Amino acid sequence: MEKSSYQDVNAQVVKRCREGDNRAQYELYKLYSKAMFNVSMRITNDYAEAEDVLQEAFISAFKNLHSYKGEASFGSWLKKIVVNAAVNAIRKRRSELVPLEDRITEGIADEEYDDNTEWQVEKVRKAIQRLPDGYRVVLSLYLLEGYDHAEIGEILGISESTSKSQYSRARKKLLDLMHDSIHVA
Fold it and tell me: What's the whole-model pTM score?
C-alpha cells in the first residue's frame, strides 16, 4: 500500500507567503480570518478580545510560517495557533476576572424569531456565553472545535480526566441554563 501525502489546497499561497509576498499574506487572511475569528469568539466570549486574538494569531503564524510543515492543512495549523492564543488571553484575564453572571446584562429583550430553529440556536448560543470561562472553553474545544479530551488537556495544561469532568459539568450547567431560560421566557 502506498503512503498518500497530504496536499493543502492553499499550498501555493503559503509558498508565496514564505517568499515574502504580502499579497499572499492578505489572501490567507481573507481565506481564514472569519472562521478563525469565530473560533476565537467561542473561546473568549468577547468581541474585542477575539479580534485581538485573531490579529495576534495571524502575526504569529506569518512570523513562524517556517515551522508549518504541510502535514495538515494550513487552516488546521492556524486553528491551533488561534486556540492557544485565545486560551492564553483567558488566562491573562483570570487575574481581573469578574463573575460572568455580573457581566451579563439582564433585561435585554430577546429578539423574536419567525423560525423556531433559529430561535433555539440563539438560546443555546446565549446559554453557552453565560457559562463560566473554564466550562465554556472546554465545551467549545470539545463540542464545537472537535478536540478530544487528551488534546484539550494538553492545550489547557490540565489532565484528560479534568477535561472530561469540566465538560460534564459544562453540559449540566448548560442544560440548567437552558431549562431556566425556557421557564423565564
Answer: 0.70
